[in-house]
Amino acid sequence: MDTKPAAVPARQEASKPEVPKTPKAHKLHPEVVAAQAKDILSVLLVLRFVNAISVRTFFQPDEYYQALEPAWSIAFGTDSGAWLTWEWQHQLRSSLHPVIFGLAYKSSYALMTWLEFFAPFKSLILVALPSVIQCVFAALGDFYTWKLATEIFGAQSNLPFAALWMTILNPWQWYCSTRTFSNSLETTLTIAALYYWPWELLADSKNSKDAPLQSKSSVNSLRVSLFLAAIAVLLRPTNLLIWLGILTLVVTRLTLDGTSHLQVASIITLLREIIICGTATLAISILSDRLYFGFWAFPPYQWLYFNITQSLAVFYGQMPWHYYLSQGIPLLTTTFLPFTLIGLYKSTLSLSPSPSATSLTTLQSNILRTLSFAVLTMLAALSLISHKEVRFIYPLLPILHILGAPYILTFFTTPSPSSGTTTTTTITTTTTTTITLRHKLFLANILSVNLLLAGYLTLAHQPAPLSVLTFLRTDFERLHPQTLSLTPPNPPQKTELFALFLTPCHSTPWRSHLVYSALRARALTCEPPLATAPNSVERETYLDEADRFYQREDDGGYGAQFLREEMWPLRDGERGGEVPRYIVGFEGVEEVLRGFFEGEGADLGVELSRVWEAWNGAFNEDARRRGKLVVWDTGVWELPEGTKEA
User: Fold this and answer.
1) Where do the domains of the chain lie?
2) Distance CA 306, CA 87 (A)
3) Contact (CB, 8 A) for 138 and 48
């Protein structure tokens, strides 16, 4: 149930100075508004479902290893073969996010078992299930972007639809919103919390008679906002920066127009609800973590300790201070960058209206300024941290769409002569839906670039890491039809090592796509140097398993020493280590493998033959991942009795 008050006072305030009145817009009936919202949400759900099923590419491992692997462990047990990274072993992550997918896995598998679906069909459903769930969150993120824009600019304005079209046509949204990153859910929670936030706290006392937070609906709205915000902060502690920025301006009114009408009662209500909602959400999180880890844990503290005190975040890369400005914001907004930058800049200023136009109301201006301040606060704080990723500022994208909407609408449209308008020096708020497109060629070029980017990234940029697991899973179903279980057998049975991944660490998903617990696989690891001190020699010279495999040797090559000494070591005249049925790697490692198996490792009896390969995109940022992804049959395992060649 929507507990948001009917409308913020921003659309009813009188602006300063006195200006000529514009034609009064026809007010939409509440039932029309409700039906419109329902239709928009329905369309968005369908759109994001299509988006989810069209994503066929690999982006970053956190999509799987920080969400789906622990979720798989929740659903099918710790012995199911799920890969739990060091963050989960040291309680750095909240269990709230994977619990969503874990419960979905468990319930859907129970239903399919009761309906007696055959195993390969169950695996198809389980692989697709997380994306289907995430598409709902993605649609809600788009929906609340439109809803917040409507609260700011008014239901009769075209600006909310400009913000909506920006979020729909943004390539980053198409590429990432339906992926199971905690950042994706954090983005939805943030924009929904911003919608329910009581923005009347920013109103000018001269233009508002009632004190804020005195009505039941306003307090209920605040509670929803705080609850959603608290979950977002628990998922990603850096989300707190957005809310610190907003609260700073609410309390200090720094840079805001007008005078505050916050009363003691309103401040007490705000503090009370922050404490109650924060404590309740924290209690839920602690209980969830207790059930998941089996003991009491507090992941936010562990996250701060390891990433800041122990400086382990830099182990995964360091970026210059300007990364978010020079790369982060441009990658998020792509072709919309000029409009979002103008919106961000203009909203921070107190613009004087032109003599012949009306300005935004004081509250509207204050809301936009507060949102821009929250953006700048988060950018400034995260720029001080060495390890940076675009995903870390993903929650700012809906805000940037709203800030840029007035300028993209003004640039590409012209209101009809009969339309009522409200205009600032650069913002035109059209009070009817009658508009005329202009700069059509430029608009067509922008849309074409966005569609091409979205299509390439979701269909053609690194598709092999997903398709190789489909090959391995289906081939396992062909070779071992009697062992298609998601839980390990009791008593345990020793099975063949089905696949060895000689790729950079976490180059593919894992159990969420391999599915079967009997499908044993091994991959190079990249655990950080937890036992070393920051800035120590041990920390600086540390090499993880993947680094050791790719480390250049004296002859200029790589891999031979690792294969000889770590993968298949020779001890007491015998070669140790398991030989898999298949070896998976990018085609650059084929020379390394053949050189080893035809030389020092000839006693293993391996005769490599390519059985599968796939194109992995036109380019790759990591040179180790360039070229095709290949599966080689080692030739040491016979086909099970009664099995035909593939």
Assistant:
1) 9-54+90-451, 464-633
2) 9
3) yes
pLDDT of residue 26: 55
**CB neighbourhood size of 547 (10 A):** 14
- From first CA to last CA, the distance across the chain in angstroms is 54
- pLDDT for res 257: 86
Buried-exposed string 129-165: b where 16+ CB fall within 10 A, e elsewhere: bbbbbbbbbbbbbbbbbbbbbbbbbbbbbbbbbbbbb
Rounded Cα–Cα distance for residues 240 and 230 (Å): 8
Contacts 24+ apart (CB under 8 A), 532-540: 534/310, 534/311, 535/311
DSSP helix/strand/coil, 296: coil
State the Cα angle at 485 between 479 and 490, rounded to 5°.
110
Please name the residue ranges forming H helices in 294-421: 299-304, 323, 329-333, 337-347, 362-383, 397-412
Cα 462 to Cα 49: distance, rounded to the nearest angstrom:
21
Among the listed residues 166, 151, 119, the one whose alpha carbon sits nearest the alpha carbon of residue 225: 151
The SS3 of residue 438 is: coil
pLDDT of residue 130: 98
Contact assessment for residue 221 and residue 3, using Cβ atoms and an 8 Å cutoff? yes
- Tokens 């198996």 belong to residue: 597
The reported pTM is 0.91
Is the Cβ–Cβ distance between 204 and 363 less than 8 Å?
A: yes
User: Can you give the pLDDT at residue 131?
Assistant: 97
Provide the b/e sequence for 361-373 (b: ≥16 CB within 10 Å): bbbbbbbbbbbbb
pLDDT at position 640 is: 75
Residue 351 Cα distances to 205, 369, 376, 424, 447, angstroms? 20, 11, 19, 8, 31
For every residue of 354-378, DSSP letters joined together read: PTTSPPPPHHHHHHHHHHHHHHHHH
Q: Would you list the DSSP string of 116-133?
A: T--HHHHHHHHHHHHHHH
- Contact in structure between 390 and 384 (CB atoms under 8 Å): no
Q: How far apart are CA 502 and CA 549, in angstroms?
A: 8
Q: Residue 355 has what pLDDT?
A: 35
- The answer to whether the CB of 60 falls within 8 A of the CB of 316 is no
Instruction: Report angle CA 71, 498, 120 to the nearest 5 degrees.
Output: 55
Question: Residue 552 carries which DSSP code?
Answer: B
What are the distances in angstroms from CA 624 to CA 116, 469, 566, 587? Answer: 43, 19, 20, 9
**CB pairs under 8 A, 24+ apart, for 12-18?**
13/203, 13/204, 13/207, 13/208, 13/361, 13/362, 13/363, 13/364, 14/207, 14/361, 15/353, 15/358, 15/359, 15/360, 15/361, 15/362, 16/359, 16/362, 17/353
Q: Taking the chain (646 residues) in consecutive chunks of 10 residues, what is each chunk's mean pLDDT?
A: 52 38 55 88 98 96 96 94 93 94 97 95 97 98 97 91 96 97 97 96 80 88 97 94 95 87 86 96 95 92 79 79 96 96 86 44 92 96 92 97 95 70 44 76 95 96 97 96 84 84 96 96 92 84 93 88 93 86 96 94 93 93 91 89 65
